[in-house]
Known about the structure:
This protein has 718 residues and is mostly helical. It has 28 helices and nine strands. Among the domains are: 8-131 and 133-173, Neurolysin, domain 3; 207-272, no CATH class. Strand 7 and strand 8 (464-465) form a beta hairpin.
Amino acid sequence: MNKRIIPLAALAMMAGGSAVAQSNDTHRNPFLSPYTTPYQIPPFEQITYDDYLPALEAGITQAKANIEAIVNNPATPTFDNTILALDRSSDILDKVVYVFSALDESNNSPEMVAIAEKFYPRYSQYSDEVSMNPGLFKRVKYLYDNRDKLGLADDQKLAVEKSYKDFTRNGALLSTEKQEELKKLNTELTDLYLQFNKNLLAATNAFSIVVDDAKRLSGLPQSSIDVAAEEAAGRGLKGKWVFTLHAPSRLPLLQYADDRDLRQQMYRGYTSLASSGQYDNKPIINKILQARAKKAHLLGFPDFGSYMTDNVMAKTVNAAEDLLMQIWRPAVKRVQREVAEMQQIVNDEGGNFKIAPWDYYYYAEKVRKKKYDLDENQVRRYFALDSVRKGIFTMAERLYNIRFTEMPDAPKYYPEVKVYDVTDAGTGEHIAVFMTDYFPRASKRQGAWMSEFKGSWINDDGTADRPIIFNVGNFSKPTADAPSLLTLDEVETMFHEFGHGLHGMLSRARYKCQSGTNVDRDFVELPSQIHEHWAMDPELLRIYAHDYQTGEVIPDALIEKLEKASTHNQGFATAELAGAALLDLQYGKLNPTSDIDIAAFEQKVAKDLGMPDELTFRYRSTYFKHIFGSDGYASGYYTYLWAEVLDTDGFELFKEKGVFDPATAKSFRENILEKGGSVDPMQLFINFRGHKPGVDALLRNRGLETPEKHNVPSLNKD
Length: 718
């Protein structure tokens, strides 16, 4: 193989100058040398702010040289000298991008913000140069045109097809003039995403509710009151209580606070997030929509939604929308029944008001207590974070025979992070490194997610490089008197993100580009969502759910109540999710050439849908990070429900065979988790399940009515 690889030592000399000069010749950029840490965990304690940009440039230099060697190789293109060589061309770049993007989300700072303003545009520029490299595309096209004649293995053929499509979707077939236009649009979008996220984090941290009257705390769990008191003390407001927009603060207030005005204040604060003042994201959204429309047209698509769905399982916006409408209609019917039950409680209590959006969580909890004698606040004592951690690890060991051993001395990017060595329980073979970072802080964005510091692949000698995977959350924090006690939603979220983690940890795909979660966007949620089903499984609950004070195992009577209440409030949960997904798809259909009224557009979509007055979209546009903080889930938020069709159908096989049935677990591991993107995703599902999925299992799981089979109209309305 005729490849030119720039030695790491040479790159260190190229890029180390600025960092070395600022560190009096004592510091060496850790990205430019092989990591000497256990399992190549990034040496976080050695990384300084001054390392990122020089390492980025060194990584780009290395990757460009390696790509130049691929292009100039006189040999006829083969899989190894083109696709595989490209897969291995960016060692340094991968390392610095993984670390910077992870810490930018989970441990931000003013210094990181300043670096990001240079880092992401430069990386975007490099990505465009690769995607539009005519010599590289020529070799890929040769392989694509001859893919049926070259004796390629199935995963190699799929890699060639995906590489070709990626090149064409990123401008390889455009004229030079059009490519320059596309590069400018990509740079513009990168800057806009950066500004959207910057505004969102700043707006989130800028909002707070200060309570100075203890009477207003009536109904709130003591744990929430304690956290609010600690937050106030940390802000120099000892003796008061501070509530923020972070989920562990916001949601208990909406769910339990008897003070209706307090609930309204929190609800309005959240649903107006980043919608006015210095952090207003509406102008940013308009610029994003216009740039996306131009990009789609350049690439030959009628709109951005068509561009985004062309490359995934759904294939078209209409297919995604049709699925959502099959879910939306029964969800709205269920909402109407839920609201009626809530309104009855309001009336019985002598309340002289109609249920409003800020009442939904509060009265849904009252209905749950009345119908099922179930108080979630009392249930939480069985779900201390460490107990739930035991639950996810036990699930993984029972299903996949893997074990998690803490590595207390391993490098970590924040003191609260925990690091685990993941091994085969039978052989002791190292499988992966797994990290967790579960508590909110001002430097971390909202939400929960999984990502990696290193992917996995198979080397030429047959040895495997194993991944470094991490989960991030914003769960309820411990207090001085109690550990972190999770809500049922947080328990489900922890299992969900761990499912993503298992997808990354257990990958056995041969190539980086196909390993782990490198799959179609509307397939990637299958491994995460199917593992949510074990969170409330009675057999597993008896193993991990223990009273944090007494150690008592969760009683069977309480497990029975949880099972009976499992579909409680699913009208609301489903409608707000499906509504947000439908809003996202409507944005994807737009082709604006000037600014639109974002709030009015939301209202029109809600009206066309028949959105009940008592709820709104799960995310309003100005804080809908999934679709405006990047293009990752743009015209793709539907994928959570698309994948739920897969996961609910798939889990029914586990229920038929036994939730810990070894043969079923082995099949899921081998056909779904290990394969990554090396096989067509629908074929993977069929290999596991034995048939294509249908929506009925999802509706049954959520306790919704199964609609009659008919063609579902789209939302196209004048």
